[in-house]
Write a structure and sequence with these properties.
351 residues, mainly alpha, three-stranded antiparallel sheet, membrane, transmembrane helix, transmembrane
């Protein structure tokens, strides 16, 4: 088993970045829901789905279709997430000139091949060309035709999601800087304090390794689950829905999470927070004497903020690799069965 302080320090830093990355994501989700930015971006992405002059009108009709209006949080909001099935069903409804008719492949063929019928239901030539390709692949199977539309939509939304994340990087960085400054999560200070007290470093690393082991045993998946931090415990919350608009955290919950993450890190032995021990002593110093400690403090905070930009999934993956290194030589344990219920993991506070 490796007992290197470097590995212990890497684990402690990675867990700090992981927990704060989750907090940054929560705050970003809260702001996006508050301003409905995700919903606006999604609508814009759907309107640009096809480079066809008539598609925007079709997109407007889709947003008035019950398959999509049912996803709204309230009357004046836009859905922040539209499942592929809902989109495909709304689009296929456009083939109907009478909402009461039962759609079949014959009706779809008529719309796609007859200019008069297509004009009657409002589907342009460019859209018909794409859908005709799906129709031919479906070979007369209505469900297969809908599946073709869903696949096309998912592929387009994957690209749009990547663009959305890149466009959100500045906002995420600003949130990261504010969080690091508010909680005084200074990478340089953490390294100096823990490296100077390796007994405390080992204790913190042991504590965090236990947390990660138990979280993994509960089947935590950073892509679909989240972790709720409390003063001395964490709870794995399984299967967070893709549509977070209806379950977005409110301001009170966001403030509570920021506070509890800070408390959890302190109880785990990580030197964060604006305490005398974590703040440079500038008493009696001139401006120039204070300049270097202040620059070091700012650099430490910025290093943390930059680290948070990598995201919780990155840090969780790295944590597991570090834990494997730290536990090298132990007999591998059997993989635990993945549960579907929320699970609480209690940790031992430091001090």
């Amino acid at each position: 088993m490796f007992n290197s302080p470097i590995i212990d320090l890497a684990l402690t830093l990675s867990f700090t970045y992981f927990s704060l990355s989750l907090t940054v994501s929560t705050i970003h989700e809260y702001l996006s829901a508050l301003l409905n930015k995700r919903g606006e971006y999604l609508k814009n992405a759907i309107e640009c789905l096809l480079f066809d002059q008539d598609w925007k009108q079709i997109a407007e009709k889709l947003y008035n279709n019950p398959n999509i209006t049912s996803l709204k949080k309230d009357l004046n909001s836009l859905p922040s997430y539209i499942p592929a099935g809902n989109f495909a069903a709304a689009l296929m409804d456009q083939f109907k000139d009478d909402k009461n008719i039962i759609l079949d492949m014959n009706k779809i063929r008529d719309v796609l091949t007859d200019d008069g019928i297509a004009a009657q239901v409002g589907i342009s030539a460019g859209i018909r060309k794409l859908l005709l390709n799906f129709y031919e692949r479906a070979q007369g199977d209505l469900q297969s035709f809908q599946k073709q539309i869903e696949t096309f939509y998912n592929s387009a939304m994957d690209r749009a999601s990547g663009v959305y994340k890149r466009s959100s990087q500045l906002i995420v960085f600003i949130i990261s800087v504010v969080i690091c400054a508010s909680l005084n999560v200074d990478t340089i200070n953490i390294v100096n304090k823990l490296w100077g007290n390796q007994e405390a470093l080992k204790h913190a690393a042991d504590n965090l390794q236990t947390v990660i082991k138990q979280v993994n045993e509960k089947g935590y998946n950073p892509k679909t689950d989240t972790i709720k931090f409390e003063a001395s415990k964490v709870t794995v919350i399984k299967n967070i829905p893709a549509d977070t608009s209806k379950n977005a955290p409110n301001g009170k919950k966001v403030a509570q999470q920021i506070s509890t993450v800070s408390t959890f890190l302190v109880s785990s032995g990580i030197p964060v927070g604006w305490t005398a021990q974590n703040t440079p002593d500038l008493k009696g110093k001139t401006f120039y004497q204070s300049l270097l400690p202040l620059l070091i403090k700012i650099t430490g905070l910025l290093l943390t903020a930059i680290a948070l930009m990598l995201g919780a999934p990155f840090w969780f993956d790295l944590i597991n690799k570090i834990v494997s290194l730290r536990a090298a030589g132990k007999k591998p344990e059997e993989e635990a069965t993945t549960p579907t219920k929320n699970t609480t993991v209690t940790v031992k506070p430091v001090g």
